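the two lines:
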Amino acid sequence: MCASSGHPEATTQNLSTSGPSLDGRRSFLGALLGVGSVFVGGLLSVPLIRFALFPLLRRTTELKSSPVGALSEFSPLTEPAMRTIQIEQVDGWRKAISEKAVYVTKDKEGRLRVLTSVCPHLGCTVPWNKEKNQFVCPCHGATFTLDGSRVSGPSQRGMDTLETSVQDGQLLVRFQYFRQLVPNKEIIG
Amino acid sequence: MQSTQEHESNAPALREPGLRGWLNRRTGLDTLLRTALYEPIPGGARLAYVFGSALLFIFISQVITGIFLALYYVPSADHAHTTVAYITKAVTAGSFLRSLHAYGSSSMVIVLLLHLSQTYIYGAYKGRRELLWLSGCLLFALILGMAFTGYLLPWDQRSYFATAVGTNAASEVPLIGESLKRMMRGGTEMGTLTISRFFVAHVFLIPACIFALVASHIFLFRKAGAAGPVNEHPYDPKLKPELFYPRQVLMDLSLTALLIIGLGLLCFFVPIQLGPPANPADAQYVPRPEWYYLPIFQWLKYWHGSASVIGILVIPTVLVVAIIALPFLDRGIERRPWKRPVAMGAYAFVLFVLVGLGLRSQYVDKHDPGVAQQLAKQKTEEGEYMHKPFEPELSSASLAAANAALADPLAAKGKTIFEAQSCNACHGDGGVGTAAAPALVGIAAKFSPEQIAQLVKNPNTKMTAGGMPPIDLPPDDLKALIAYVESLK
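prediction for all of em together
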């Protein structure tokens, strides 16, 4: 940008050589303006930074615990009870709700345990077989005991247990998927 | 290395040592800074000249806040409102930034009117400044275009209906009106294509034009030189000049700081509202534009039938042409307002009519009990919506959404069989398919129910190889299962 029309240019040259060499008062003022601008700019950038970092500082994708049923429902448990749970998955400003079957059963000490119905072999849904008193996968015949431990078949581990909690007498479960075809339980999502 | 050093120090003015000197030799930053800051202002710095810089500041602030808002915003009719609600209610500082952007647009219009008034009253458009004035007029139109296109984007009741009225007004233009409206809306009705168009105009097209025009506006301003006070000669300035830096810079920055503080306080204490999502079926809603469009809104009410050509086309066109052509029409060198009665009279008249129309619009609304009541109700609904916590949008792949679509009880029964038989284990929930088996969605288009029944009972070799077992079900259950599979879309 240039002030090249005859008159103003002459004035610029005139003044820039005589007047405004960066003397003490001017450079102090300049520094003051600079510091002030940086300060105000910094102040203004605080909400911008907080806005942009929001997904890093807060959970924006979360898997909520789903209610399975009242604890009292499961006290006289003799065989695994199948329950369909609703899983609410929040992803930023959207959420998805899906349904999954889980089994409420007891471990060897008699404590409640929730198993996913997804077979750790290749992911088929495993039904409870009353006659055999075992879980039997319909796809490749893996079998599991009442508490989900592996008995036979191609699966390399027992059925996967899910994280549970109790709130106001309600059994809650956090549904998760686990890697298939491996001997140890690994969360994949 | 040494020879380079010698070569560089040849020019005596650039012998400055250290980082600053190096940077200057590479960029000419000092020269640039001098050119920018040592602009002579005939007659010295004045508070009246601050509006241009203030406008530039608000524009930059609009660009920055706009970019940040786009981090979460989605321009489509089914997500726009949710994402704006997310910004307003969930994201940290989201309400503040959105308010800054929304109030920023209003303050931009205010400062723009002040800048225009100052230029007009001071006769600063005179003397080799025709193109400067012209680029200013175009910028004015573009800023109003930004305000208009940005207003729709939240897709709440208020913005939806205001834009419906605004685009309808365009259809009143003779001959091309209807095409113009369809062009803006991307069809005959307002919908998701309208959002896309407004978004592209608001975020890409108009800002690009504004950047180019701001650059030319500043260039033309520097080329012509600052006009100075009203007693200065428009072509040949005679008053003792003062440089832009430091006093004018100080004044400009002070006003800017005041603006920042004012806007910041406003956004903090009176954040901008978001109403309930747009409901095109709402026949009760009384749309009202933003304050700066109220005079036009009121003006359009007076023109109907055959006379509308005069009110909607002739008068506005004459006014706009007169404003654009001002520096060509008014060639006199007299700049003192009290010696320019025609120009000042015209200014006062236009201002009076605009303010009068705006106030009239408010008055009419207040004194029509039906309208006043409805407007109050809309305001209450907005307040109530703002107080509700943010509710995430249910994704269309959700089971709840899929279940709602299962109106057929036979298909609903089929769904339980689909799950009980572990079909979902391989074909996925809702038949979306997994690595183990193909999707069943849309299968109705390929196979008849009889063919599907046959394949379920006796899978073909390819299916068997993939692990599909033959399914033996009672006929009623099979029928239900097929009804469900056929319903998957």
